[in-house]
Amino acid sequence: MAEAARVTAESLAALVASHREFLGFVERRVGDRALAEEIVQDALVKSLQHVDEIRESATGWFYRVLRNAIVDHQRRRAVRERTLGTLAAESTIATDTELEQVVCRCVSALAATLKPEYADALQQIDVDGTPVKDYAVAAGISASNAGVRVFRAREALRKQVARACGTCAEHGCFDCTCGRS
After folding, report:
1. Cβ neighbours of 174 (radius 10 Å)
2. pTM, entire model
3. For residues 72 and 133, what is the distance between their CA atoms, to the nearest angstrom?
4. Residue 105 in domain
5. Sequence-ordered alpha helix ranges (H) in 103-126
6. Which residue range is the domain that position 135 belongs to?
7. Contact 39/73 with Cβ under 8 angstroms?
8. Which SS3 state, helix, strand or coil, does residue 106 take?
9. Which residues contact 18 (CB under 8 A, 6 or more apart)?
10. Residue 67 sits in a domain of what CATH number?
C-alpha cells in the first residue's frame, strides 16, 4: 500500500513538473495557446482518476493521453464544421424555397386584388427590383409620386394580408393556412 502511494505521488510530481512541456507539445499541434491549455487541463483531470494504474514513465504515458486528446479534439471539430456547413447550406435552401412558396402564392394572389397601379408598382419595385426612379420614368410620374404610390401599395397589401390571414400575418407565419395558397 505504501509503495502504491509512493508511485502515485511520484507520478503526480512528474506530471506537474512537465506541465510546460505538455502545453508546448499540444500547442504546436493545435496552434492555439488557450485551446492547448484547455486540452492539457482536461487530460490531466481525466488522468488523475487513473494515475494509480501507471506502470511505466508517467511522462511517456501522459504524452500518449495527450495525443489521444488532440485526435479526439480534431475529430469533434471536423464533425462540428461539417455539421455547421450542412446546416448553413440547408437553411439557405430552405429559406429561399419557403419564401418563394409562401410569398409568391399567398401574397402575390392578394397583390392582384389591389388597384392595378398599386399591383404594378409592387411587382416592378419590390419583386423585380426596379429602382423607384426608373419605375417613375416608365410610369410617366415623378419620383416622389412613385415613392408615395409604392408606400400606399404596401400599406394596401399589408391590410389585405391582415384581412386574409388574420393573426397569422401579425406573427410572420411561414406555414400559410389561410386557404388562399
Report:
1. 13
2. 0.44
3. 59
4. no
5. 108-111, 116-121
6. 112-170
7. yes
8. helix
9. 59, 62
10. 1.10.1740
Strands, DSSP E only, in 107-146? Answer: none
The cell for 170 is: 401579425
DSSP state of 172: T
Task: Please state, in angstroms and rounded to a whole number, the distance separating the CA atoms of residues 19 and 41.
Answer: 10
**What radius of gyration, in Å, describes the C-alpha atoms of the chain?**
33
Condensed to tens digits (0 to 9), the pLDDT of residues 105-161 reads: 677 778 888 899 998 998 888 888 899 999 999 999 998 999 999 999 999 888 887
b/e map of 133-160 (b: 16 or more CB within 10 Å)?
eebbeeeebeeeebbebbeebbebbeeb
Closest C-alpha among 121, 127, 124, 93 to residue 107: 127
Q: Which residue has the cell 386557404?
A: 179
Q: Give domain status of residue 104, yes or no.
A: no
Across 52-87, b (16+ Cβ under 10 Å) vs e yields eebeeebeebbbebbeebbeebeeeeeeeeeeeeee
Give the CA diameter of the chain: 100
In a domain, 181, yes or no: no
User: What are the Cα distances from residue 82, in Å, to 4, 31, 90, 93?
Assistant: 46, 20, 12, 17
